[in-house]
Amino acid sequence: MFPTPIEKTSRSWQISYQIILPIVLIIWLLPLIAVAMFSIKPDSDFANGNYWGLPSSFEFFSNYGKVFFESNMPRYLLNSVFITIPTVIGAVALSAMAGFALGVYKFKGNLLIFFMFIAGNFVPFQILMVPVRDLTISMGLYDTVQGLVLFHIAFQTGFCTLFMRNFIKALPFPLIEAARVEGVAEWRIFLYVVLPLMKPALAALAVLIFTFIWNDYFWAVVLTQGPNAQPVTAGITEFNSQYRAAYHLMSAGSIVAALPPVAMFFLMQKHFIAGLTLGAVK
Amino acid sequence: MAFATTPTASTNRGWYKRNEIAITPWLFLILPILFFAVYVIIPIGQSFWISFHEWDGLGEKTYVGLANYERLLTDDRKFGISFWNNLKWLVLYLLAIPMGLFISLFLNQTVAGIRLYKSLFFFPFVISQVVVGLVFSWFYFPNFGLFTVILDLFGLEIKGGVLGNPNTATYGIIAAGLWPQTAYCMILYLTGLNSVDPEQVEAARLDGAKGYKMLWYVILPQLKPATFIAFVVTIIGALRSFDLISVMTNGGPFGSTRVLSFYMFEESLSEFGFRMGYGAAIAVVLFFLMLFFIVYFLWSMYQDEKGGH
Amino acid sequence: MRSIMKTSFAALAAASIVATAAFAEGDALTGDLNITADMSNPAPRAVIEGLVADFGALHPDLNIELTVVDRDAWKTQIRNALTANAPDVVNWYAANRMGPYVEAGLFEDVSDMYEDGSLEGLDAVKSALTIDGKQWGVPYTYYQWGVYYREDIYKELGITEPTTWEEELANCEKIVASGRVCYTIGTKFLWTAGGWFDYMNMRTNGFDFHMQLARGEVAWTDDRVRQTFANWRQLIDMGGFVEDHQSYSWQEALNFMVDGDAAAYLMGNFAVAPLREAGLTDDQIDFYQFPTIGDFPQGEDAPTDTFHIPSQATNKDNARAFLAYVTSTDVQTAINAGDALGQLPVNANASVDADEFLEQGFEMLSTNAPGGVAQFFDRDFPAEMASVGMEGLQEFMVFPDNLDDILARLEDAAERVYDK
């Protein structure tokens, strides 16, 4: 193990490590601690210049109450859910199919198609922006949740296919051979042999895509407008356009917006990290 | 061919059965490819096409040949600034890799509660860039921003605040971007460190290697796959920088924080932007910049594939 | 020329047509009416919601759908809204700002409404909605620009409302000497600097010159333009403006005036509401017309906000009825009152609310704006020129020494924009 395990070092270093650890963490998370603090401060603290001190009163309920009952926030949150969940399902389903086709079968153009998915995944968004926007408008899906979902599914399929294909490639091929010998139809092999083995990959991708899509801002701005269809990332800035910058409400809104992916991360940590670090280990 | 003229269920199944292995992959691929083609591949072509036109996005397109590129590459200062800023992003964003490595080495221990520490350190990556941008811009605010207050303690002052000063604004945004990106690289290295071969480490230790030497000659070579992924995701992240700029400075002050992706958006879809053709030309340039790295990535994947079979 | 707005507001005041509410004549409407409004700030939001409720009460069988979108976001979103599933009524701005949509055929020609008498009392403001001899929408409100100042601070320093540039500079010196700045401003979103340029240029070179510049008939590198910047620089160099203004939005910049660190704000009348909300009383705020510099008849900025019917709308008859309703006398009086929008009515027969700022603004525009009425920098200049221009103006306010470079850049952009 590297660096040298802490148990094997001097007593004094062991103690200092235990002390340094929380301090470094607090510094690292200072921005988040600040938002959390902002979100429970009364408005008057900002007017009086008490930005970074302790809150002069505890306004958790009134601030978060305003976010939930006096703004469009619940609507935006709901939109985010309606955008994110179908995208996760769609992208995972499509890429499982593509990954299966590319990982199990040998045919001409296999690698070419695979590389197309990978390359497309790295393309800058801006080169897609105008045509995708026009396409969405011409389909009558501009400013709808569906318009965003369709695009997200298509784009995320690239990344997910890379993941799925490599995962399937690593599965024991004899299993599939054996099923074939028994005369099982190919689509049944996919459903009953491969898919059950892919559970970890499906879970990992689902949490990853959930986070990516939940946090998307660019496409939300390009393909939607207003509370009808806009997700929460675009909605937060609404607090900004009121007369005075409402830092406390914006902070509370930010925290509410950040909670779902954070919860997802802590609940599914193992899968999340497995997804992110795909390829980081050989 | 009998089965073609009498399409009964049984003959169909027979034909399908015989060619099942050849047909199945295409059946599985048809939907993903269709989606991907419609939303990704074809739009790339369309953007190339638009870039040869003058178009306000509302009326008719006028073909202008390479005029957009000519203006872009010869006398557009905004483009120059954006391109230069893109380079700054590319170079400085890579700092996330050594920083991530450093933190992962710091955290790669087995003390009580370390798992919670690791996930809390990773936290920033899970949060939307919009939130990160908002928080950092409050930090940087002139007069009352925490960063400004701290600089004050050391007797330093940045005129106009970090984001209001054209000399510091871009660096301020990059620093905000490094926060989640470092967390990402950290998690990559933590996973990589997990699978470092303990025997090699012990062997090297017996040979008297330790500290930097050990890191450089024994550990880092084993972390190569992690470094590779970290490099790729960081480069992509750097070239995609849009959210932070849009939230923190909106390209200002006086356009000093523009990058190509933001400039493109501004020209085509912003309040005063009605130049879709020109915007498309910027996007094409950005695409070629990215293509350089895409090809590198595909090439190394191709080497892997060849080695794997 | 479409961007010239020599609307005589004197005519507005003098006109005396008997008010007949056009909407009342029509039968009750049926079907749908989809309105997309950009009136997202609290007071305007209440106004549009009230309008919809009242119009709905007049036409109980009409199904009205109101969407309020963020005012700043709408500036970029309108083009999508006009091309896809267009609503029946939308908000926008007068003058050159309509240009791209009129040229692309996305706004409905409503000249007929002006001709057949369903829009009485709008003759004076008609020209702001005119492009190529046709009218493309109706105005619903306008407001004056000018200097809003802290009356109490001026009293404390023993200074009065300036009418000439010399007085202005003398005032400012006293204010700076007292440890304050003369003007607050937040240029993060650029347009506030456009307001300053409008006034500096209109006062230094006259309204007509300003409009020539907007039409691209004068070069940015012209000596007269340089003179404008030289005058402006006097205020900058004496520390007349709040520092770090490039980091603030106009709302954030209000705080300097509320806290008494800045003595005045060159702004539109919409600044009054948040100033009052922040606790300033009417004894503490007052208004004066921007002082004169050269010997020119004063021109003023008075931006007009508008309603339009997208040409792809599906319920155009209902939309026309709504437009007539919004501009009718009583409605105009009501929605522009101090407790509503707090701005000026566009209908000549409507009455201006008894609010000290509205009365002063109305008085100024009716009797003391002989030069002409401009819409605003970003509405009078073509889109690309406006965006490049405002960025340059912001840079000038922070680094006045860069002026040569800035002007060269603006002229470069102008050559392209106006196809010189």
TrEMBL record, chain A:
UniProt keyword list: Cell inner membrane, Cell membrane, Membrane, Sugar transport, Transmembrane, Transmembrane helix, Transport
InterPro entries hit by this protein: MetI-like (IPR000515), MetI-like_sf (IPR035906)
Chief localization: membrane
Domain ABC transmembrane type-1: 77-268
Record's subcellular location: Cell inner membrane; Cell membrane
Pfam families per UniProt: BPD_transp_1
Family matches, as CDD domains: TM_PBP2
Gene3D superfamilies: MetI-like
UniProt record, GO biological process: transmembrane transport
Membrane-spanning intervals of the chain: 20-40, 76-104, 111-129, 149-168, 189-214, 245-267
Membrane topology according to the record: Multi-pass membrane protein
GO CC, alphabetical: plasma membrane
Function: Part of the ABC transporter complex UgpBAEC involved in sn-glycerol-3-phosphate (G3P) import. Probably responsible for the translocation of the substrate across the membrane.
Similarity remark: Belongs to the binding-protein-dependent transport system permease family.
Subunit-level organization: The complex is composed of two ATP-binding proteins (UgpC), two transmembrane proteins (UgpA and UgpE) and a solute-binding protein (UgpB).
Record-given protein name: sn-glycerol-3-phosphate transport system permease protein UgpE
Species this protein is from: Yoonia ponticola
Lineage of source species: Bacteria, Pseudomonadati, Pseudomonadota, Alphaproteobacteria, Rhodobacterales
Gene that produces this protein: ugpE
Automatic annotation (TrEMBL), chain B:
Main location: membrane
Compartment list: Cell membrane
Keywords (A to Z) from UniProt: Cell membrane, Membrane, Sugar transport, Transmembrane, Transmembrane helix, Transport
Membrane topology: Multi-pass membrane protein
GO biological process, one term: transmembrane transport
One cellular component (GO) term of this entry: plasma membrane
Pfam families listed in its UniProt record: BPD_transp_1
Keyword Endoplasmic reticulum carried by entry: no
Sequence ranges assigned to domain ABC transmembrane type-1 in this UniProt record: 86-299
PANTHER family: ABC TRANSPORTER PERMEASE PROTEIN (PTHR30193)
Similarity comment: family membership: Belongs to the binding-protein-dependent transport system permease family.
Protein name (database record): Multiple sugar transport system permease protein
High-level lineage: Bacteria, Pseudomonadati, Pseudomonadota, Alphaproteobacteria, Rhodobacterales
UniProtKB/TrEMBL annotation, chain C:
Matches recorded under PANTHER family: ARABINOSE-BINDING PROTEIN-RELATED, BLR3389 PROTEIN
Any one annotated GO CC term: periplasmic space
Residues of the signal peptide: 1-24
Main location, first listed in the record: periplasm
Localisation: Periplasm
Keywords in alphabetical order: Signal, Sugar transport, Transport
Pfam families: SBP_bac_1
Protein name: Multiple sugar transport system substrate-binding protein
Species this protein is from: Yoonia ponticola
Family, per entry: Belongs to the bacterial solute-binding protein 1 family.
